[in-house]
# Entry
Amino acid sequence: MKNFDFDTFPDRKNTCSSKWSELKSEKEIPMSIADMDFRSPDCVVEALKERSQHGMFGYTYVGDDFYQAFCDWEKKIHGSDVKNEEIIPTAGVITGLQWSMQALTGKGGALVMLPAYPPFLSVPKNLEKPLVTMEMKPENGKWNWDKAEFERIAKSGKIDTFILCNPHNPTGRLWSREELCWMLSISRENNIQVFSDEIHGDIILPGEEFVSVLSLPMEIAGDAVVLTAPSKTFNLPGLQTSCAVIRNADSRKRVKDLMAKSHLPGPNLMGITAATAAYRGGEEWLREMISYLKENIDFTEKFLREHLPEITFIRPQATYLLWLDFRKTGWKCDKLSEKLRDGGVFLSAGTNFGKEVGEGFMRLTAACPRSLLKEALERIEKVIKQG
# Structure
């Protein structure tokens, strides 16, 4: 097994990094944006070098190599059979979500489970669709949801859209096969279009199982739109390459037609090059990254237990995100954000994920060198103990 270096990373300041740019001071540690501070796999870097040396960067299209690499990855990693023609390459998962929602749904409401990744709250509003929410709650060491409430909303006639986050951002919860089949069956029975964001679906922690909607029976999930990308898996978001997998031929045509009429660009040349290389050669890197990530989560859990027992989190099953519960400190998100940033740590405020349900929570991105994580946690400790 090759050993990859996750303990060091190049300085990202002054590189147009969104995560490392808007800081209060040069010493602030940003752990807000879901962007890993790990260097991408060597296979990606080498593929980009080779392509750049060709020296020609004219108009291009997505070739068969990318489609085959993606289909092979889905089959090997998730047991999903995907055909080339079912894939619509897009510049981003949220881009694919908004345009496919516009093409496939009307003005009915969009159901989102809270807490929710902020774009899931804004995309329905962009399309003038009412936002309908239901709250997930921490119970018995897990983020739970109310099946009866889901069914009531689905049968109300007020929604035509369900945005599923699988795995869930920000809690890191995984949905079981039984849960997914039930949700999609209820949605299908009530003419609700399902959009499943599976962008974190490759980052599954040891001992856990991810079930892709693409692996479910066609009679249940055949009409769903599945959105995914290599961007979280291999730290490639700046290369803007994603996929919308749409198995229903009529739905796929409607989405393609709308995107074409809108002159919406697809992925760029270097993004396709990087994604293809990652899907073909990045599996070993991913396995070691997940192992390192697990140790980071173990470290955080131990640190909080020993130094800051008032701050807790339910251990995620997937993703590199930690949904930290600061409510026992008595501080709300506005104060938490201000105090923590003054203390040199930038976390995502929980209220961005739902104003009421996220109050008192902060999201931390744990995919970084352990030394950086340790320094951030020590700064948090100092802020909380100083009051």
Summary: The chain has two domains: 29-41+283-386, 46-281. Residues 29-41+283-386 form a domain with the Aspartate Aminotransferase, domain 1 fold (CATH 3.90.1150.10). The longest helix spans residues 283-307. The first strand starts at residue 29 and ends at 30.
